[in-house]
Design brief:
By secondary structure, the protein is mainly β. The protein has 1 helix and 9 strands. It is globular.
């Protein structure tokens, strides 16, 4: 019985990282008009994907103190397959607005976009994976 428990733990230990969603990880946002950017940590939130602002940086690339650190930026994103994520929400700190959002993953690049007013006003950014 002890060997069965150990074998199961080993199998799960190796399998769980393989079950991680490809978008999981740290992502550098595109700089704002002021040159500020953030690192967003994307993880699974139940059966959906969410992202939290982990760090903020000034135009000089140095880390800054920001009230946005720790805030959820992405939530309710649903993985549709082939790097497509839809039906989520994204909060834009620079505008303090929440948009209906979708994302497209392509290797270490993430195209993030969001719209309000039934798609009349949209914004998009290209994020890069932090290694």
């Amino acid at each position: 019985m002890k060997k069965l428990v150990i074998a199961t733990a080993l199998v799960l230990g190796f399998a769980l990282p393989a079950l991680a969603d490809p978008v999981d990880g740290a992502w550098k946002t595109q700089p704002s008009a002021e040159g500020k950017f953030a690192i967003v940590q994307i993880t699974a939130c139940g059966d959906k994907v969410c992202g939290t602002i982990a760090k903020s940086f000034g135009p000089d690339g140095k880390q800054i103190t920001s009230p946005n650190v720790g805030k959820k930026m992405i939530w309710d994103m649903v993985a549709k397959g082939n790097g497509v994520y839809e039906d989520g929400k994204i909060w834009a700190p620079d505008k303090d607005k929440t948009y209906n959002s979708h994302m497209q993953l392509s290797g270490d690049a993430l195209a993030v976009s969001g719209c309000v007013l039934g798609g009349l006003i949209c914004r998009s950014q290209h994020w890069s994976r932090v290694k």
